[in-house]
Amino acid sequence: METEPGQTTPLALIVEDQPDMAALEAAMLAQDGFDTVVVGDPEAAVEILTSRIADVVLLDLRLGAADGLQLLSYIRREMGSRPPVVIVSGHISPDLETYLELFSNVSVLPKSRIHDLRGAVASAVSAAIGAAS
């Protein structure tokens, strides 16, 4: 995994406004050696992304009054195809999945399948590394 110079462990940015879900995601990724930064809104996520290199972003789509899709658009516009983004949401429809295919290195995990999070993150990071090679 690519990391920031001097950064010894991979970083996962978790953008989730429900503290219990964010804590669960962070605990699961810690099992795989990730450092995690949890934020509850897109503005805080942008602050982190402008100052640190994230190896993966976990993104909820409904962040209170904020829209996770706008953050996804920002990430791809400003950062290109890296970092990989895993959408973790309880609000996934076939139309949304079709729309998300427009973005590179984006995968979708329904919150009802949160037990698959570690595998989804590993797959997303591996795919991103393969695409960069």
Overall description:
It is a single chain. Helices cover 43% and strands 21% of the residues. The chain has helices at residues 19-30, 42-51, 68-79, 94-100, 117-132, and strands at residues 11-15, 35-39, 56-59, 62-63, 66-67, 85-89, 106-110. The protein has a five-stranded parallel sheet with strand order 2-1-3-6-7, with helices on both faces. Strands 4-5 form a two-stranded antiparallel sheet. Strand 6, helix 4 (94-100) and strand 7 (106-110) form a beta-alpha-beta unit. Helix 2 (42-51) runs parallel beside helix 3 (68-79). The termini are close together.
- In whole angstroms, how far apart are the ends? 12 Å
Major sheet, described briefly? 5 strands, parallel
Radius of gyration: 13 Å
* Overall residue-averaged pLDDT value: 88
Task: Quickly give the structural class.
Answer: alpha/beta
Low-confidence stretches: none
The run of helices and strands is EHEHEEEHEHEH
Helix content: 40-55%
Tally the beta strands: 7
Number of helices: 5
| Share in β-strands | 15-25%
Strand order of the largest sheet: 2-1-3-6-7
Shape: globular
